[in-house]
Amino acid sequence: xxxxxxxxxxxxxxxxxxxxxxxxxxxxxxxxxxxxxxxxxxxxxxxxxxxxxxxxxxxxxxxxxxxxxxxxxxxxxxxxxxxxxxxxxxxxxxxxxxxxxxxxxxxxxxxxxxxxxxxxxxxxxxxxxxxxxxxxxxxxxxxxxxxxxxxxxxxxxxxxxxxxxxxxxxxxxxxxxxxxxxxxxxxxxxxxxxxxxxxxxxxxxxxxxxxxxxxxxxxxxxxxxxxxxxxxxxxxxxxxxxxxxxxxxxxxxxxxxxxxxxxxxxxxxxxxxxxxxxxxxxxxxxxxxxxxxxxxxxxxxxxxxxxxxxxxxxxxxxx
Length: 319
Fold this sequence. Notes:
Helix content: 25-40%
Shape: globular
Low-confidence stretches: 303-319
Number of strands: 11
Largest sheet: 5 strands, parallel
CATH topology of the largest domain: Rossmann fold
Structural class: alpha/beta
CATH superfamily of the largest domain: Aspartate/ornithine carbamoyltransferase
Radius of gyration: 19 Å
Number of domains: 2
Strand content: 15-25%
C-alpha cells in the first residue's frame, strides 16, 4: 500500500516518474477515471494545497470527503491514529493530512489500512510542494545538474525549504540558503551554505522566496516588516541584478512588500502562478500513484524528452 509521508522515501527515479506523469496531465485532458475515496484532513489552514488536492481528486473521478477538525471528534480528544482507523473502516482509501506537528511520527503507519499523503507536517516536511517546485524548475531548465537554487527567508520554520533541499539535491541541483541570521537553524545550515542574499542573486538560477511565518514566531520578529523588506525583500532593484535566465518562485501565500515586492509577483521572471498550476497536476499524479501502486510505473516511462525550453513531454503508455 503506497503512501508518501516524507521526501526521504523518494528516489531520483521515483521523482522523475511523478514529474513525468504530472507533465502529461498538463498537456492532455484525457484523464483516467479512478475509483476511490479521498479524505482531506487539514488541521492547519491552507488554500492552495487544500483546494488543489480537492480539484485533483475530482478530476480523477474520486469521491472527496472534507474533514473539519472543529466539527470532529478531535475536540473530544480523539487521536489522529483513531481517526485514521475510523476512516479506513468506512472504506476511505487515501487520507491527505496537514497538521502543525510532525504528524507522521504520531501514527503507527504499519497498522493502518489506508494510504497517507503528507500535505504539510509542521516545520518538518511538505513533499508535494517540493515536487511541484521541481516540476516548475524542470520545465524551465530541463536539467538540474549544477543548477544553483537560493532559498531565502524564514528557513527556521519552513517545511518547504527542508523538502525542497532533499528533492532538488537528489536531482543534482546546488541548494543554498539566505536571509536573516536568526532564521538559520543548525539542522539546515549543516546541509547547505548560508550565503549573503545580495551576492547570491547575481549567479542564482532560481530564487525561491519564503513567507515569514508569523504564526510560528511566538516572540515576534527581531526586525520589523519594513526593515526586513529593505534588507531581504526581493525588490525590483534586486531583480534587475539577477541573471536574465533566472526565475522567481514562492510557495505562497505571499506577504506582499515584505519578502517580495507586489510588482515583482507578476514580473516575466515570476513562476509563482505556474507553481500553483503545477500543484494540481502533481497531486493528480500522486493520488494516482497511491491507488495504482505497482502498476503505476507501467503508465509512465522514466525517459523524458526535451522539446523546448519550457515544454517537456513524457513518453507514456496508454491509460
